């Protein structure tokens, strides 16, 4: 079993695409998966240079899918990626359950479907009562029996504010089957205390930010990339910022390099505000409007796809998104 971390770079937490409301088999309560659109988007991202896909994360509405649908989605994308020549790009399968056994069921299924890694959301139902020692034991119990290496998914926004301390990451990073983390919060000091910790070996435990607006500062403190929602719309742009940092770190940074990195980070931050406000609904809206991929109104209850006030809301974002699209197209 491979126990090395995912390669450094940019990964995309992909949205799950559902059938359009105009589809013959559309059901507003149990909207069917749209695997053809899923594949179209996956290949769009891989051609844009991302290192892999996170399928069934928060952006992917993992909690809205049955285990049967999870497996169908994962296996279809692995098959299509391989067929298109992307066997070397990883699939990281998300889990969002509260108990160890169900998490292991999903991880075993993910391996059977072709995923290389699992991204395990911290169990936050009893966040106010959970101790750091309890969190350590929970992740160790999962890692002990997981058939694939796992990453710790720290997203307080969806786990009742559950906090995982940097010292807890230092302990968990010693487990041979825990190979990294996604930090979906804006706490740069905590990113630093994990990515730069002398107690964590970066060759066996990779730190990825879950926020593209943090990419440049996180890279400077030892982070290995981002698992970023905006990269689902503009993969080449986010990859360009990552690659430019890597190149200049090796050869030495010029004033022009520094200027380009700051400008790219600024433009990414502008557009990431939509992701912060609207989440997966906003990401789907932007993908549909900018590239014609998917139905911006497709989601599962209680989410209702598309902006609630349609054109009025998009008009607030159109200029910055169209501007970044110009950058994206220049990088093709």
From TrEMBL:
InterPro entries: Aldolase_TIM (IPR013785), DapA-like (IPR002220), Schiff_base-form_aldolases_CS (IPR020624). It comes from the Eukaryota. Gene3D superfamilies: Aldolase class I (3.20.20.70). Keywords: Lyase, Schiff base. CDD domains: DHDPS-like (cd00408). Pfam families: DHDPS (PF00701). Belongs to the DapA family. This is Aldolase.
């Amino acid at each position: 079993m491979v126990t090395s971390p995912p390669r450094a770079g940019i990964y995309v937490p992909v949205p799950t695409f559902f059938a359009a409301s105009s589809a013959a088999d559309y059901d507003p309560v149990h909207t069917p998966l749209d695997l053809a659109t899923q594949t179209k988007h996956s290949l769009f991202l891989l051609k844009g240079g991302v290192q892999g896909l996170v399928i069934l994360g928060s952006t992917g509405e993992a909690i809205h899918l049955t285990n049967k649908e999870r497996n169908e989605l994962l296996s279809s994308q692995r098959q299509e990626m391989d067929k298109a020549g992307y066997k070397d790009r990883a699939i990281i399968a998300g889990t969002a359950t509260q108990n160890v056994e169900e998490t292991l069921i999903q991880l075993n299924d993910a391996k059977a479907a072709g995923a290389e890694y699992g991204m395990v959301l911290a169990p936050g139902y009893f966040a106010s009562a959970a101790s750091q020692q309890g969190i350590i034991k929970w992740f160790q119990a999962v890692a002990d029996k997981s058939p694939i290496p796992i990453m710790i998914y720290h997203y307080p926004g969806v786990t009742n504010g559950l906090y995982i301390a940097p010292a807890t990451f230092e302990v968990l990073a010693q487990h041979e089957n825990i190979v990294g983390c996604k930090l979906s919060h804006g706490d740069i000091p905590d990113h630093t205390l994990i990515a730069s910790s002398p107690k964590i070996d970066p060759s066996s435990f990779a730190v990825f930010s879950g926020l593209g607006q943090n990419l440049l500062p996180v890279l400077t403190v030892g982070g290995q990339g981002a698992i970023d929602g905006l990269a689902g719309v503009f993969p080449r742009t986010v990859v360009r910022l990552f690659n430019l940092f890597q190149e200049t770190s090796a050869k030495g940074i010029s004033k022009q390099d520094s200027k380009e990195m700051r400008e790219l980070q600024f433009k990414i931050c502008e557009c990431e505000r939509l992701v912060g406000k609207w989440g997966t609904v906003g990401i789907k809206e932007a993908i549909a409007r900018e590239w014609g991929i998917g139905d911006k109104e497709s989601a599962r209850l209680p989410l209702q796809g598309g902006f609630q006030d349609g054109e009025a809301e998009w008009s607030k974002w159109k200029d910055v998104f169209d501007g970044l699209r110009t950058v994206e197209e220049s990088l093709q």
